[in-house]
# Entry
Amino acid sequence: MTEAIEALKALAGGFATTFKHLFRKPITEEYPEYKRPLPERTRARIILTRDPDGKERCVACYLCSAVCPVSCISMQSAQKEDERRYATWFRINFARCIYCGLCEEACPTSAIQLTPNFETCEKDILKLVYEKEDLLVDHGGKDKEYCFYKYAGIVTDVGGKGEHIREDKPVNVKSNMP
Ligand code: SF4
Ligand code: SF4
# Structure
């Protein structure tokens, strides 16, 4: 008898939920006619951004490539006359990318960034291999003012290496060699 009452209660609960939804306004979104605005931090299509002065941010350090869990980033580094490094070619295979965002986290120059653009489907899987010319944009993406060279390697007037308060003297790395 108790089991029958429990079953009836569950049944009534189920019908009550169905009944409640009968009078609700549907919230179906007619994609692609309506595209819901996505947050700026949504992780989809990747771009390579530029510094405020228009120079390529990527210095071909390979960090994004090393951290990528599915090994879908590859590139070749080179150096300009002013000793600034750059990638002669830069390739991302979006057929393998899992949009984890680790490349963006690892990038010291804020060059590689994920964008909310998720509409990158292709019938031909080879079209999902993007080259540098497909990735490089002419703006700074999420952080338009950031410039790696404004912060890295800058000499300050508060002393050299090992001269700051509570800072150890630099280690001679060759003294650590066996
Ligand atoms: S988002 Fe993740 S999987 Fe895609 S390229 Fe970056 S590190 Fe690799
Ligand atoms: S995108 Fe960033 S992490 Fe990747 S090679 Fe260029 S500078 Fe290094």
In short: The longest helix spans residues 2-22. The chain has four helices and five strands. The CA atoms of residues 91 and 131 lie 5 Å apart. The chain has a mean pLDDT of 92.
